[in-house]
Design brief:
227 residues; mainly alpha; 434 Repressor (Amino-terminal Domain); 3 domains; 3 strands
């Protein structure tokens, strides 16, 4: 493979603090392929070279030159699309879902389709969505620990960037960690209830009145013989 292209691909990726996984997701190829490109073991076809250049927002010629010129910083949230390309309507961004919706025509699209650089936030949104799924679908203390770890990992990723999007995502991390505290109490209550320790379950559920079905569980505990 042309060592110039391999070196430029690695230089660009490292310049923007991107992992091979993030680049692979954006380009729609396996992680190993990006590794082999950068190692000079494989050569992307013309279509993919064009796609790589578009991702880094440079020309194909620049990508194939000896010294590729890179911007001092990768485009930040200030460069995110604000209006629909179809009708010009204002776009509402949902950073947790990674989508944007036009207030005029109502169409919803992935932000990454309009702004390729947005893929750098993928590890954060992936962790947040997985953590929220755990909170909504599981009720064990082990799952509470897993959700907490995911929120903390997402928060650490947010600290890598200093822009509007990472700040918004950091709020989801903080809210998630606060919710985990309630979730842990709820899981303890469920554990006691399932083991017929209704008195202990009642103590836990009383701490989180209004959370999920805690109020209903309180009534169920009171209807049982406590021990």
């Amino acid at each position: 493979m042309d060592t110039i292209l391999a070196e430029n691909m690695k230089r660009l990726r490292e310049k923007y603090n991107l992992t091979q996984e993030i680049v692979a997701v954006s380009l729609g190829v396996p992680d190993l392929v990006v590794y082999r490109w950068e190692a000079g073991r494989e050569y992307p076809d013309k279509r993919m070279i064009k796609k790589i250049a578009e991702f880094y927002e440079i020309s194909v010629d620049e990508l194939l030159e000896n010294k590729v010129e890179v911007a001092p910083e990768r485009p930040t949230a200030d460069h995110l699309p604000e209006n629909c390309k179809m009708c010009g309507g204002e776009l509402t961004l949902n950073h947790l879902a990674g989508t944007c919706k036009c207030a005029n025509c109502g169409k919803t699209k992935a932000i990454a389709d309009l702004y390729p650089g947005y893929v750098k936030y993928a590890p954060i949104t992936k962790a947040l969505n997985k953590a929220n799924s755990i909170l909504n679908n599981r009720t064990t203390l082990a799952s509470a620990d897993e959700a907490k770890l995911l929120f903390k990992q997402a928060a650490e990723e947010c600290n890598r960037f200093n822009d509007e999007v990472s700040s918004e995502l950091a709020k989801f991390c903080n809210d998630g960690l606060a919710t985990v505290k309630q979730f842990e109490i709820y899981c303890r209550g469920k554990h006691f209830f399932d083991n017929k320790s209704y008195k202990s379950a009642l103590v836990e559920f009383e701490k989180i009145r209004g959370y999920r079905d805690a109020d209903a569980m309180i009534d169920r505990c009171k209807g049982k013989k406590t021990k």
